[in-house]
Amino acid sequence: MKKILLIVMAVVALAACHENIEERAARECKEYTKKHCPAPLSEVVVNDSMVYEAASKTVRYYYSLRGVADTTALNINTVRDDMLTNIKNSAQLKRYKEAGFSFRYTYFSTKNKGKQLFDFTFTPKEYNQ
């Protein structure tokens, strides 16, 4: 009886520790935001937060632009193409790409609070080409 109880407890414990890729994404986004954000990525870009949007299976990044990037007209097509190339080449996103996640990047102005400058979404169809 004691052996059976130990086996049942071990199985329950192992099952409780296992999370699927979507639960993992939600947890990792929340932990990253809590621990690191706001995180300056360069002189002009700050990562404000990351969230996982389960309904659309999307990892979403919120950024703020400041300085020259916030006041100069950027070539949107060049920015978008560079971001897509980064997703295609990212080893960190490998598991999420294999699971068919989308990635969304929203950039806001620091100078004009609340003004959205860019909003790009990349789907598996785009980054798997």
Number of helices: 6
Biggest sheet: strands, sense, closure? 5 strands, mixed
Major sheet: arrangement of strands:
1-2-3-4-5
Note the overall shape. globular
What fraction strand? 25-35%
Q: Which residues form runs of ≥5 with pLDDT under 50?
A: 1-15
- What is the H/E string? HHEEEHHHEEH
Distance between the termini: 57 Å
Summed over residues and divided by their number, the pLDDT gives a mean of 86
Question: How many strands appear in the DSSP assignment?
Answer: 5
How big is the Rg? 19 Å
What does it look like?
- The protein has 129 residues and is an alpha+beta fold.
- The protein has helices at 2-17, 21-36, 68-71, 76-89, 94-98, 124-127; strands spanning 39-40, 45-53, 58-65, 102-109, 116-122.
- It has a five-stranded mixed sheet with strand order 1-2-3-4-5.
- Strand 1 (39-40) and strand 2 (45-53) form a beta hairpin.
- It is globular and about 45 Å long.
- The protein starts with a helix and ends with a helix.
What would you say about this model in short?
By secondary structure, the chain is an alpha+beta fold.
Secondary-structure topology with pairs:
Blueprint: H1 2-17, H2 21-36, E1 39-40, E2 45-53, E3 58-65, H3 68-71, H4 76-89, H5 94-98, E4 102-109, E5 116-122, H6 124-127
Descriptive tags:
129 residues; globular; alpha+beta; disordered N terminus; 6 helices; 5-stranded mixed sheet; 46% helix
